[in-house]
Design goal:
The protein is 60% helix and 8% strand. By secondary structure, the chain is mostly helical. It has one domain. A hairpin with a 2-residue loop joins strand 1 and strand 2. It is elongated, with a radius of gyration of 22 Å. The mean pLDDT is 92.
């Protein structure tokens, strides 16, 4: 570190912040939300764990079950946030991270919508209207499971699938990532 600091300060005339600066192996350090790692002998870029946690925290705030407001507004705010986040982290070579985040977000939205439907009669009517067989709808609405658990149940997933969220205007994180990677 001493040699690096001397070079930066004397040769390049830069000031080094001792608290923020360290010398270590790239795999052990995080830089601007990214992490570096080796995969098949090549260096790859990934999203740092803390950056993923902060993204999930923000999306968690936007998709609280008790949140008020129209679904259109919720989807718009999510799209605004994820568009910027994906744009920043598009350099990452880890598509699975974006896919997991996409799946988790849709489950959060299913939970939010299920909670908004409130009464079992409304839940059943909405499930049937979205193409779920009445027997499945009765089974889901009669369940004593919580909203998070029900958001992953087959009837709710069938009714509130990817096509439903696309029709509501939700941008797919995975599709946007691949779109940015190819351009």
């Amino acid at each position: 570190m001493e040699n690096v600091r001397r070079f930066l300060e004397q040769k390049l005339k830069l000031k080094v912040n001792e608290k923020k600066s360290k010398v270590d192996r790239p795999a052990k350090r995080k830089f601007l939300g990214f992490r570096l790692f080796k995969r098949k002998g090549e260096v790859a870029i990934g999203v740092a764990k803390r950056a993923m946690e902060r993204c999930r925290e923000r999306l968690h705030q936007l998709t609280r079950r008790t949140r008020s407001g129209e679904l259109d507004e919720v989807v718009k705010q999510i799209n605004d946030y994820t568009r910027g986040w994906i744009g920043y982290f598009r350099l990452a070579n880890t598509p699975s991270v974006f896919q997991e985040l996409d799946e988790w977000l849709r489950r959060r939205l299913r939970q939010l919508l299920w909670k908004r439907w409130k009464k079992p009669r409304t839940q059943q009517r909405n499930l049937v209207a979205l193409g779920v067989p009445p027997s499945w709808a009765r089974e889901a609405t009669g369940s004593g499971k919580g909203t998070w658990r029900l958001s992953a149940s087959p009837p709710v997933q069938q009714a509130l699938n990817n096509a439903y969220w696309r029709s509501q205007g939700l941008m797919s994180i995975t599709e946007r990532y691949h779109q940015l990677r190819t351009t």
